[in-house]
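Worked problem 6 (solution included).
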Amino acid sequence: MIDRRPAAIAYCVDNADVAAAIGFASERGLTIAIRSGGHNGGGLGSVDDGLVIDLTPMNAVEVDATAKLARVGGGTLLKDLVDATHQFGLTVPVGIIGTTGVGGLTLGGGVGHLTRAFGLTIDNMVAATVVLADGSVVQCDVERDPDLFWALRGGGGNFGVVTQFSFRCHPATNVLAGPVVYDLDDVETVMRWYRDFIAAAPDELGGWFAYLSIP
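Solution. The predicted structure is:
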């Protein structure tokens, strides 16, 4: 159970708010935590005695069906992104829990049911808007500030506050997904079987393992 008590929370509605929050924290020596959806199991979306920059008001999703692109606010939840793209018969490869924030998932990689078919969430990010530590706002992609774009793709939230993502979209299809439960005593046999099975399976089929205590 994560129980952290920030000194203040800044609910930001635009880039100017984020820049002001960063400046406020810097002037007072406050540690910053950035919250997109607050799903992180390690509690990285909060901080004791510091400032939480909460991006949840920045949750607009704009879909360009012709270009197959989605522009997504840094505080958007996955379920809202998926709902918006599905209206156009499109989807973005994201995680499996709808209440996860797009920011934390993307900057950490992003694994989900469509990973083997279309790659990680971060593989489908084509551009980002970032507020840097000095309060400046930059747009980055493979041509504009490519080093920052490279660092964001798997580097976590260590290089600035990403307030908007642009994602490549793919045609939405029906996905059959669910758990298959085995006894822990069978784990070695099952993992060996899965290793051989998945090597020959089509990219449309994926899976992962979790060790759980089931009542």
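Discussion: Residues 33 and 52 are 5 Å apart (CA to CA).
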